[in-house]
Amino acid sequence: MPSDEDPILRARGLGKTYPNAAAPAVAALDLDVRRGEFFTLLGPSGCGKTTTLRMIAGLERPDAGRIALAGETLSESTRNSFVPPHKRDIAMVFQSYAIWPHMTVFQNVVFPLEGERGLDAATRRRRGMAALEQVGLAALADRGATLLSGGQQQRVALARAIVREAKLLLLDEPLSNLDAALREQMRTELKDLQRRIGTTSIYVTHDQEEALSLSDRIAVLRDGVLADLGTPEELYLRPRDAFTAAFIGRTRFLPCRVVARDDAGALVETEFGAVRCAAAAPDGTVQLMVRPEHILLGPPSADAPNRFAGTVEDVSFAGRTVAYAVRVGSTRLDVLAMSVAMRAPGDAVSVELPPDRCVLLPG
Ligand SMILES: Nc1ncnc2c1ncn2[C@@H]1O[C@H](COP(=O)(O)OP(=O)(O)O)[C@@H](O)[C@H]1O
Ligand SMILES: [Mg+2]
Predict the structure, then answer these.
(1) What CA–CA distances, in Å, run from 302 to 174, 287, 296, 343, 349?
(2) Which end of the chain is more exposed for a tag (fewer CB within 10 A), N or C?
(3) Roughly how many angstroms between the first and final C-alpha of the chain, as a whole number?
(4) Domain 9-246, architecture per CATH
């Protein structure tokens, strides 16, 4: 569990522009990662996640800003100070596992310990086996590394990172080469492993579900800039802007006008009626965000707050869930429901927008 201590990793004003690039890959980035935290950098491809991670690892030299780990400066561009990667107490798992085929599983895992002076064979053996134990591969220690499945290679790459017992673990899309089912299984294993060993981790992914299920906190990056930061629940339920809201889940934005603000939140007027929102409205023009799975379908009566009469127009059955398009006034709302009660096109229904799940965003 993360603690309230000073952040173990602190980045201030971090920036990087590649030669001949039109725009910075990363700009003015501030990050505070807490001790023991599982911290994720999330964003679409090209938003600067890998560049950020590589600057923390020392594989890329920032051209602006400062990075400190446990109070020790790793790089500071104004002073031209830069600690090389092998002198940083940081381990990294790359997207390509980079496993050496001519070595055994064990040899792959203890390879990073080569550089540690004064480490006797018994200690190497103990740490290597402990790391393999952690990822459930102890039985395969002496197997050739080529004879491994994708999931096993992934575990070897993880073991090779945790064997260092470094202060910080960096993971760059480590599950992206696995098929969907294995990815989900490894996600669970990875989360258990991180909780068990408690190493502060910075995880990079473009997969919002992965980010939501793994992370203590998520930083959303957009075009090299920090767009939002918060716990999975904060970002999903109360995003600060439309970019985060749309990137981190499916959603609908509805035009609306604020008619009242009070201690309980705000009342907005939409095309199909007045909607009460439990959170405050930002200044200026706003739009109403409601996620499809937060809209409740009910029997056709509309005599409750935030409940409106509608007609089912489209039904898309996906087994566990059913996606509906429901006409309310002249608006078509997407509603995602569990498949417990089925509706058919033409059915009269009511839709209810829970005030707690109505978010007002700058629009
Ligand atoms: N070595 C490089 N040389 C030039 N441009 C690069 C290099 N690496 C990344 N970029 C560019 O920097 C931006 C950020 O890339 P990257 O950090 O890899 O993003 P992400 O990991 O989020 O996909 C992109 O526009 C990418 O094309
Ligand atoms: Mg990347």
Answers:
(1) 49, 23, 12, 18, 9
(2) N
(3) 37
(4) 3-Layer(aba) Sandwich (3.40)
Return the best residue to mutate from 14, 40, 50 for the ligand 1 pocket (most ligand atoms within 8 A of CB).
50
Ligand 1 contacts CB of residue 77 (under 6 A): no
297 CA to middle of ligand 2, Å? 40
Q: Please choose from 14, 16, 18, 49 the residue to mutate so as to test ligand 1's pocket, defined by most ligand atoms within 8 A of CB.
A: 18
Mean pLDDT over all residues of the chain? 93
Find the mean pLDDT for residues 318-333.
96
CA 89 to ligand 1 center in whole angstroms? 24
Q: Give the model confidence (pLDDT) of 214-254 as tens digits.
A: 999 999 999 999 999 999 999 999 998 899 999 998 888 99
Ligand nearest to the CA of 172: 2
In whole angstroms, what is the distance from residue 99 CA to residue 83 CA?
Answer: 26
As beta bridge partners, residue 289 has 253, 359
pLDDT in tens, 117-139: 788 889 999 999 999 999 999 99
Question: What protein residues have CB closer than 5 angstroms to ion ligand 2?
Answer: 50
pTM for this prediction: 0.91
The residue whose CB lies within 8 Å of the most ligand 1 atoms, and thus the one to mutate among 51, 55, 221, is 51
Of 99 and 352, the structure prediction assigns the larger pLDDT to 352
250-362 belongs to which CATH class?
mainly beta
* CA torsion through residues 109, 111, 112, 116, sign: positive
* Residue 50 Cα: closest atom of ligand 1: 21
The DSSP result for 65-81, as a single string, is EEEEETTEEEEEGGGTE
Condensed to tens digits (0 to 9), the pLDDT of residues 42-98 reads 999 999 999 999 999 999 999 999 999 999 999 999 999 999 999 999 999 988 778
Domain boundaries, the chain: 9-246, 250-362
The pLDDT value given to residue 302: 63
